[in-house]
Specification:
Distance between the termini: 48 Å
Number of helices: 7
Radius of gyration: 20 Å
Number of strands: 0
Shape: globular
Helix content: over 70%
Length: 201
């Protein structure tokens, strides 16, 4: 009788739904947009390629990351919420600046972009400190991204193409690190074992 009652209660209980990890999506959206723009910043492709960056920044780097941030909020992940929402907003702000506000800067365009990048560099720097408690893979992304923002900010303040090119190369490394982390998370989750290491703390 006890067994029958247990089965009845179990059958009537709502199923427990597992929550998918949104981090691979957020990292992939960030990586893809950063990768393409960094090729422009490094001087490896024509500046006209920015035309391809804008839709990426709007939908994959922007909206997809905002969605990932909101899903991290539902999971109770403060770091993921802060990171993905921040960089989703970064890419949307980048599109808005390029399409709407850049002409307003006039001759101060370099300084305007420098301030824009420096602000996100500061946020990224303290997220890198928080990443010390996440994993080696995530920490690598945030350390490289901090360097990328700082180099690009300095390059814009100084109107130095050389420094901006270096920032572009570091940005490519940042994107590759983010691609790897995204791939590791989704592959490991799908295979339900560690296939690619992320060096968790």
């Amino acid at each position: 009788m006890a067994t029958t009652e247990t089965r009845r209660v179990a059958a009537e209980a709502p199923a427990t739904l597992s929550t998918a990890d949104p981090a691979p999506l957020g990292l992939a959206g960030f990586a893809a947009t950063t990768f393409v723009l960094s090729f422009v910043n490094a001087g490896l492709v024509n500046a006209g390629v920015v035309a391809a960056v804008l839709p990426l920044a709007l939908f994959y780097g922007g909206l997809a990351q905002l969605l990932a941030g909101l899903l991290e909020y539902r999971r109770g992940n403060t770091f993921g919420t802060m990171a993905f929402t921040t960089y989703g907003a970064f890419w949307l702000a980048f599109v808005a600046y390029e399409r709407l506000f850049a002409p307003l800067a006039g001759t101060a365009g370099g300084s305007a972009v420098g301030m824009f990048l420096l602000m996100f560099g500061i946020v990224t720097a303290y997220l890198a400190i928080a990443a010390l408690r996440v994993s080696g893979a995530v920490l690598t992304v945030f350390v490289l991204l901090t360097l990328t923002f700082l180099l690009l900010a300095i390059g814009n303040f100084a109107a130095s193409d050389g420094i901006k090119h270096v920032g572009g190369y570091v940005g490519i490394l940042t994107a590759l690190a983010a691609f790897y982390t995204s791939a590791a998370l989704v592959i490991n989750a799908t295979w339900k074992r560690q296939v690619l290491p992320t060096m968790p703390y």
